[in-house]
Specification:
- This protein is of the alpha+beta class.
- It folds into 2 domains: about 60 residues, lambda repressor-like DNA-binding domains (434 Repressor (Amino-terminal Domain)); about 110 residues, Jelly Rolls, CATH 2.60.120.10.
- Strands 1-2-3-9-4-7 form a 6-stranded antiparallel beta sheet. A 3-stranded antiparallel beta sheet has the order 6-5-8, with no helix packed on it.
- Strand 2 and strand 3 form a beta hairpin.
- Helix 2 packs across helix 3 and helix 2 crosses helix 4.
- The longest helix is centred in the first third of the chain and has 15 residues.
């Protein structure tokens, strides 16, 4: 397992290359010499805190992330299906992610889903079947192998056509809150009837 300083070297070099900067360019931005930066990246010079701060600022990187140990948690996600009305949802990303990926299986229904509105954008890819995407007054058929991306400030809804359809969807925070939580929240918040009124 590499030590923290070795990880920092790898991360600094990767961030520099990702930005397309040469050693000279990063050195100039960090007010260091190119030779000093080269020795840091190759492990011939230790990384002092003052140098690390200068490089992190030049790269717009978070020092805590540069110093963080490698995450050795299980990278495999084992989604558990959850029923939501006429759909079954498999979460494909970990809780708390800024973007949530889900697989949704829509069952055909005679009842149209209620269009929703929220800030942001949604994206979907149809894995199997055909879905009807409602966008305001428009109704668009999206078939297997096709994708759609749309502003969620337009009232929108998705429904299976003729047979079950499976869709991969990406939601931002607002999309996740609007599409994945309300039905569960409503169940939790549903008022209990007065037993006297049930008779």
């Amino acid at each position: 397992m590499p030590d923290v300083e070795s990880l920092v070297r790898v991360r600094l070099r990767a961030l520099r290359q990702q930005r397309g900067w040469s050693l000279d360019e990063l050195a100039e931005r960090a007010h260091l010499s190119a030779s000093t930066l080269s020795r840091i990246e190759t492990g011939k010079r230790s990384i002092g805190l003052d140098v690390l701060v200068a490089l992190a600022q030049a790269l717009a990187a978070d020092i805590d992330q540069l110093l963080a140990a490698d995450d050795d948690t299980d990278v495999v996600i084992r989604p558990a299906p959850t029923g939501m009305g006429n759909a079954t949802v498999w979460p494909l990303s970990r809780p708390g992610a800024s973007t949530t990926a889900v697989k949704i299986r829509y069952e055909p229904s005679d009842r149209r889903p209620e269009p929703k509105v929220h800030p942001g954008h949604d994206w979907m890819f149809v894995l199997d079947g055909t879905v009807e995407l409602t966008l305001g007054e428009r109704r668009i058929l999206v078939n297997t192998g096709e994708a759609a991306e749309f502003s969620t400030m337009t009232p929108h809804a998705v429904a299976a056509v003729d047979r079950p359809a499976e869709v991969l969807m990406l939601f931002d925070h607002e999309g996740q809150r609007t599409h994945l939580r309300p039905s569960q929240d409503r169940k939790k918040q549903r008022p209990t009837q007065d037993p006297a009124k049930q008779e």
